[in-house]
Amino acid sequence: MKRIKIVSYAIILIYLLVSVYFVFFSEDLFDRFGMLEFLDFLEVWAILGLVFLVVAISIDNVQISQLTKKNIQLEKEVARLKGKFFDREEENEAKESSLKSFGDSLPAKKKAPESDEFQ
Fold this sequence. Notes:
Layout: H1 2-24, H2 26-33, H3 35-105
Helix pairs in contact: 1-3, 2-3
């Protein structure tokens, strides 16, 4: 989609540069093509520019809607993963507390006296 936008902006830039050329050299073009023929050409040129602009705006809107859908999808994925993470944390806390309570319920072991023979 980015390539299409770059191409559409390049076309609009070229269109504007040619339009600026028409403005600066309009007298020469009037003399060369005649006043009425040049004005007819300018009508077609203006309609062509409008079409370029509408196409560029529609491409932008399509890309914005696609990015919005992708953003919503990613936000849902983040929420799902946060929920999973929270559930796992609760499971780990429950396991730790049960292990601790199990360890507390065992009788304390007496340590065997250490002998110096094996050291």
